[in-house]
Amino acid sequence: MVIRGRAPLRVSFGGGGTDVAPFCVEQGGAIIGSTINKYAYCSIVPREDDQIIVHSLDFDMTVKYNTTENYVYDGRLDLVTAALKAMNIKQGCEVYLQCDAPPGSGLGTSSTVMVALLTAMAKWKGVEMDSYYLADLAYQVEREDLKIDGGYQDQYAATFGGFNFIEFHGRNNVVVNPLRIKKEIIHELQYNLLLCYTGDIHVSANIIKDQVKNYEKKDPFDAMCEVKALAYAMKDELLKGNLYSFGKLLDYGWKSKKRMSSKISTPQIDELYEEALKAGALGGKLLGAGGGGFLLVYCPYNVRHKVAARMEAVGGQLTDWNFELRGAQAWITDESRWDYKEIRVAIPGGEYHFPL
Questions:
Q1: 352 within some domain
Q2: pLDDT band at 105 (very low <50, low <70, confident <90, very high)
Q3: Which of 13, 126, 337, 344 sits in a 20 to 30 Å window from 152, CA-based?
């Protein structure tokens, strides 16, 4: 028996950074974004002993311990350790992790891995969790138990899936508003958006710490309020299907977000973005906390090919993608049912054997 959990990665359009305390507690934060067809996967294979073996397929790393030990965070796949502890796993198992994007890509990878882990473990234990409980538990384990700096949006985006406008007022006060967007608007939006990997990765916790420090000094307060206001404006324009305005608002949002911390952008990213604008893009933004990862750019259909060519010419790596409207999922597969020695097929004219 194999228990699998899958959660989608996300792109945020506006409001990034306003979901981080203390701003979201004192002022209220707002995020608009969607999940995409890039995923974090967790596979659990139960064992008959007390051994827990964790495999990171992306990093070719294996960590072993057993259920009789206290779960200690030692920097080696601590996300799994914390999830096992939170779900009170007492049986031995092998855990396999794989993600479609690297850490620091700006797509919410670590939080999405946590959601996939908890989803698979809940399925294994037969525990029913509603989406709010699952997202809040993922936040608690990552932000409070593991002390990893960050906001709220990634856990909720990965859990709920689809297009959402999410409002944050601190722990246990998060409201997810699913957006009912017409299919033709979603298709047009996806066609006009380019997702470009900058080739850099970032440590989001360092950028978030700098952002919080600046906020506590009241340096970027106006910029953060503007980023929040833009999230509301983007929601309205997207629901109405006014994608030209939506594209221009992305540009306003990126300029406002860069005022929140000097670590959010780099000269290389600024050059890539400016070249996209020169080629005809209306706007865009770096995904995640900043510093590297994926750049999302909106461009009208008739200049899309020019923007794509220009971004690749200056070092960007375009990625195929699409929107994903489903959130976290889990299922069980029993591979032993198909443990055949051979396949036999009888057709007119003879019988064929295919050894396996």
A1: no
A2: confident
A3: 126
Assigned token pair, 150: 């960050």
| Total domains in the fold of the chain | 1
pLDDT of residue 202: 57
In a domain, 265, yes or no: yes
- 3-state SS track over the chain: CEEEEEEEEEEEEECCCCCCCCHHHHCCEEEEEEEEEEEEEEEEEECCCCEEEEEECCCCEEEEEECCCCCCCCCCCHHHHHHHHHCCCCCCEEEEEEECCCCCCCCCHHHHHHHHHHHHHHHHHCCCCCHHHHHHHHHHHHHHHCCCCCCCHHHHHHHHCCEEEEEECCCCCEEEEECCCCHHHHHHHHHHEEEEECCCCCCHHHHHHHHHHHHHCCCCHHHHHHHHHHHHHHHHHHHHCCHHHHHHHHHHHHHHHHCCCCCCCCHHHHHHHHHHHHCCCCEEEECCCCCCCEEEEECCHHHHHHHHHHHHHCCCEECCCCEECCCCEEEEECHHHHCCCEEEEEECCEEEEEEC
- List active site positions: 154
CATH of residue 251? 3.30.230.120
pLDDT tens-digit series, residues 145-184: 999 888 899 999 999 999 999 999 877 799 999 999 999 9
